[in-house]
Amino acid sequence: MKHRLERVREVIKRELSEIIPREVTFTATLVTVQNVDITPDIKNCFVDVSAIGKDPDREAAVAKLNEVRVSLQHELSKRVVLKYTPQLHFRLDTSIERGNRVIEILQQLDPPLDTDDEK
């Protein structure tokens, strides 16, 4: 059963990655599907998306995806044959920004060594 869920997750992620850019236009420059989590009963699907742009544009992108959720589910049902097409729930993925912030903090804590001091 676990392997089936993994396969379903991958198929849904791949299909949504193709459907979303074709069906929805955003003010953010780029919206991508980062991760898909699906409940074991395959009735709910949580889609983490990242959006490049300013915070209001990123929030607007997720809001727009949630607005057009029904049409995206319908398109997904045409491409992926399942007993139930899961209900999509879109969330903003901020892991890239958090990772960049951690790198910035680490660089501030440990400044690069000056090669002149090593002599």
How many beta-strand segments? 3
Within CATH, the superfamily carries the name: K homology (KH) domain
> According to CATH, what is the topology?
GMP Synthetase, Chain A, domain 3
- Label the CATH architecture: 2-Layer Sandwich
Low-confidence stretches: none
Question: How would the global form be characterised?
Answer: globular
What is the CATH top level name? Alpha Beta
User: Numbering strands along the chain, what is their spatial order in the largest sheet?
Assistant: 1-2-3
What is the string of SSEs from the N terminus onward? HEEHHEH
Average residue-wise pLDDT: 85
- Based on helices, strands and strand pairing, what is the structural class? alpha+beta
Distance between the termini: 62 Å
Percentage of β-strand residues:
15-25%
- Specify the helix fraction band: 40-55%
Tally of DSSP helical segments: 4
Number of domains: 1
Largest sheet: 3 strands, mixed
| Radius of gyration based on Cα positions | 19 Å
